[in-house]
Amino acid sequence: MIVVIVGPTGIGKTKLSIELAKHYNTEIISGDSVQVYKGLDIGSGKVTKDEQQGIKHHLIDILDPSESFSVALYQKLVRDKIEEFTNKSKTPLIVGGTGLYIKSVLFDYNFKDTKRDESKLSIYNDFSNEELHKVLEQKDLLSANNIHKNNRKRVLQALNRADENKMSENISKDVPLYDFKIIGLTLEREKLYEIINKRVDKMLEDGLINEVKNLYDKGINSYSLSAIGYKELIKYFNDEWTLEEAIDKIKQHSRNLAKKQFTFFNNQFDVNWITVDLNDFSNTVNDALQILK
């Protein structure tokens, strides 16, 4: 059986996953679309070496920030890991907040018809750069906001990625491929938002601004930097926002993401929800173990 831990940003998924990995003598597969990138550490909330407590983590720090990543690639990599774990009689433990990526692994999604090919993209041959960018705005506003209209190659890549991610629209046709159980961590909304705000403050204390500035100074301008915590500070470096405005936006966007994550998990998964015990996390661990018995 595959064990999956989901939940919104900052709620304690990493902490729970470490305890479950110890209990089952297994390793952890990341279910996060940003932590695959090297150098995007603080803003992605990437598990540190100390936090790992010797537990091996997979699909972390496998790409340079300039490289592209997709749902289809994630699906392939994780399914390979599941086979590897199974062959070693280890329990696959997937942990993360990127619901669509996790969904693509567990259910029968076929990406053969969504890979980029010139015949599909040829419909845009006669589009001007501005017209092409307008199409991207309609399909993926987040990417459009982070790609200049004259960077035609990247605009086309983003359009292809947006088409690929449309698989989520066919969610009702899903067929599960594995035996799995999903545990979700939850909290009363106001408490969670308070934790998220404090988490952003801690990231700033830990050097988030310098982390993003280093990437910015290297001229990295890729999809990886459209993640929350990075895109806002880039707008600050571009003199579009003040630092205070950028920080406020990071907190706001993080809270919005948490809300969207709850909606996705509730709509797309059969989740065993656990309310996190902030006073004694061992109770949360015990609740998870009871569900998995």
Helix content: 40-55%
Q: What is the overall shape?
A: globular
Look at the helices and sheets and give the structural class: alpha/beta
Order of helices and strands: EHEHEHEHHHHHEHHHHEH
What is the spatial order of strands in the main beta sheet?
Answer: 3-2-4-1-5-6
What does this 3D model show about the protein?
The chain is an alpha/beta fold. It has one domain (2-170, 178-292): P-loop containing nucleotide triphosphate hydrolases (Rossmann fold). Helices cover 51% and strands 9% of the residues. It contains 13 helices and 6 strands. Strands 3-2-4-1-5-6 form a 6-stranded parallel sheet, sandwiched between helices. α3 packs across α4 (99-106) and α6 (129-139) runs parallel beside α8 (152-164). The longest helix has 26 residues, at 243-268. The chain is globular and about 60 Å long. It starts with a strand and ends with a helix. The model is unreliable at 167-173 (pLDDT under 50).
Considering the chains and any ligands shown, give keywords for the structure:
globular; six-stranded parallel beta sheet; alpha/beta; 293 residues; 51% helix; Rossmann fold; 13 helices; 9% strand
